[in-house]
Design a protein that fits this description.
This protein is α/β, with parallel strands linked by helices. Helix content is 27%, strand content 22%. The strands form four sheets. Strands 4-1-5-6-7-8-11-12 form an eight-stranded mixed beta sheet, with helices on both faces. The chain has a four-stranded parallel beta sheet with strand order 13-14-15-16, sandwiched between helices. The structure holds aspartic acid (ASP). Aspartic acid binds next to loops.
Amino acid sequence: MVDATSERTIAEPYVAVVTTGGTIAMEHDEAAGGAVPQLGASDLAAALPSDVPRLRAEEVVNLPSSHFTLETLEEIRNRVGDLAREPDVLGVVVTHGTDTMEETAYLLDLTVSVEKPVVLTGAMRTASDVGYDGYANLLAALRVAAAPEARGLGSVVVLNDEIHAARRVTKMHTLSPATFQSPGWGPIGRVEGGAVLVGHRPGREGLPWRGLEPRVPLLKLSVGARPDLMEDALERGARGVVIEALGGGRVPPWWLPVIREARDGGVPVVIASRCPSGRVWDSYGYVGAYRSLLDLGCLFAAGINGQKARIRLMLVLAAAETAEEIAALWGHP
Ligand code: ASP
């Protein structure tokens, strides 16, 4: 049974649905000249078949996820945390734009430490398009959120009937409904009809929640790139810097002085990779490779991509002060 009202009168367990906008909530609008967020929580809930898990839906925002600020993330995180701790809530579904879904998923994974499933879903086709994938994805997400099998998985992304761990998942295609993948790992489970099948249970991690330090740029390296991007970031008061480095963690030699300057000034530098899969590590002895960066005291995003490393560093910097505290909280992601 569906109850999309905002009154709290239901004693039976239910799935809490938090809507935030994204293509799943979009329809074509003549005046705007394209699709814009239109569908609210009750529209999404009302269109589902009658055999879905009982749910209650509420809207936090109704925006494309490219319009989210860090305050929006904080609002979503706080609401999901509150709902997940309600005794009658079986699990929480967040409907979200796919563009930044992986970042919200990782933030929730690290800071909402509950056994109950927290499931993010969205759509790649608007409700005005033939083949709108929103209801199928929402239905699959509801099934996962209500499933005992999904307890203890942390935050997951469910689209295209696949279940992906927040830590591994990334948006891989600009248009395909099968956009979400976990490169090098694959999905941790699937939704097949009414069944939720979990094949692999990722380890859990948590970080303290003290907010997000905003002054953390993410810089991407490319061949022959000058270090002025990073020099500018330091001049503007960056509190931490994430570099999507080359391969297994390598920078051109002429980036080392600015990295040293950051470290000498107490600014942590995290090295992620611009490769979509694989660890950050290498065995080279040449200048600018992994060992140079290790010697300069950089931290490493061994198994998470640059955008998730930025979320992690923003969390760590809001909670830690000294270099030792920062390194300890950063850990070995
Ligand atoms: N533009 C959308 C967003 O809000 C993309 C999507 O939802 O697929 O991220």
